[in-house]
Design brief:
Elements lengths: L1 H12 L4 H9 L3 E4 L10 H13 L2 E5 L2 E6 L1 H18 L7
Antiparallel strand pairs: 1-3, 2-3
Helix pairs in contact: 3-4
């Protein structure tokens, strides 16, 4: 009974409703792969993928030359987007001098 009271207190503290909990229970983990043929000549994604996966609450691995994220749909989608955004921002800059 103490555990139930503690769970209720946490729900109240974080303003989580029972319907929100049910939505989370209905969601299933997915595998989200980056598009085939994605370029990463400097292997930036290789160095960032574990940190991105941890930040997004996913698991990540490389399979058939593409990165795969496993997690809830929103987490996996955010992880692939974030990895691509970091690749663009950290990638080599073209010199236009």
């Amino acid at each position: 009974m103490a555990t139930l009271d503690r769970a209720r207190a946490m729900m109240d503290a974080y303003a989580v409703s029972e319907s929100e909990l049910n939505l989370t229970k209905e969601e299933k983990a997915i595998l989200r792969r980056e598009p085939a043929g994605t370029k990463d000549p400097h292997r930036i994604k290789q160095y960032l993928e574990n940190s991105v996966a941890r930040f997004c609450g996913c698991r990540a691995w490389r399979q058939d030359r593409v990165w795969v994220f496993c997690g809830l749909p929103s987490e996996a989608q955010f992880a692939t987007w974030l990895l691509d955004a970091l690749l663009i921002s950290c990638g080599p800059k073209s010199s236009s001098t």
